[in-house]
Amino acid sequence: MTFLEIAAHRRALSRPIVHEAFTELVATAFLLIAVVGSGIMAEKLCSGNVGLTLLANAIATGGALVALILAFGPQSGAHMNPVVTLAAAATEGLRWHAVPDHIAAQIIAAILGVWLAHVMFDLPVWQVSQHVHTGLPQWVAEVVATFGLPTVIWGCRAHKEPVTAFAVGAYITGAYWFTASTSFANPAVTIGRALTDTFADSSGRCAGFHCGANDRSFPGLTAFAPVRCKNGDPGSGSGGRNRIEDASDYARRRGGGCGDLQ
């Protein structure tokens, strides 16, 4: 460990817990605004083309992740993900007694972010997802997505810090497409997305399922031991709908989900 890494580690352990938790709240809320808001916008503009909608949703989420990690990483680590927060504590990048505050802030922020996205697009604030997604492919996809995230972080540690932010954004953008679940990899995001019936939703049953899958992936996170507060959360996995087929059904149910912005 270099002198700079030691200094960053000490700063991470000395930051006020309340300051870190508030930063996590703001960062996670913006992440959910990006995930849900971009899904709503893409659905309105893509004329029922589900593939194009998912592509727009993925690019917007990946871009937002890069910006959020760069902006909030120095303040709290920009975890935006309970799994990453637990991994950071396990690798001594975060004090254990700060973990409950971080996780509570992330979950609250995820819900607030979804509600703010609804307000921006003139939708009912209170919604519950009407889709249920489950099965072995979803479990495998979430384990792969969550395990791949620290692999990316670990591989980028040899480079300068901004590289990690861009690598994480690129990974999540790609994971939208190469996983059957569109890469949730984040219990807080999953809970938030259970409270929207838009393109980026996940059902309440699915929320519990994906949180379980994320927790199962936690041993992979700690085994790699790559997560430091300064690396941020890349991960918050986010993604369009759980399956492209489900998205098609959703678009048909909503009459194509297209048309001009009102």
Short description:
The chain is an all-alpha fold and 262 residues long. 67% of the residues lie in helices and 0% in strands. The protein has one domain: Up-down Bundle (Glycerol uptake facilitator protein).
Key phrases:
Glycerol uptake facilitator protein, mainly alpha
CATH superfamily: Glycerol uptake facilitator protein
Largest sheet: none
Strand content: under 5%
Order of helices and strands: HHHHHHHHHH
Instruction: Kindly provide the name of the CATH class.
Output: Mainly Alpha
Mean pLDDT: 76
Number of helices: 10
Roughly how many Å apart are the termini? Answer: 54 Å
Q: Helix amount, in percent?
A: 55-70%
Give me the secondary-structure category: mainly alpha
The low-pLDDT segments are: 215-248, 250-262
Give the total of domains: 1
Question: Please, could you describe this protein's structure?
Answer:
The protein has helices spanning 3-14, 17-45, 50-76, 82-90, 99-120, 136-156, 161-178, 187-193, 204-224, 244-253. The protein is mostly helical and 262 residues long. The longest helix is centred in the N-terminal third of the chain and has 29 residues, at 17-45.
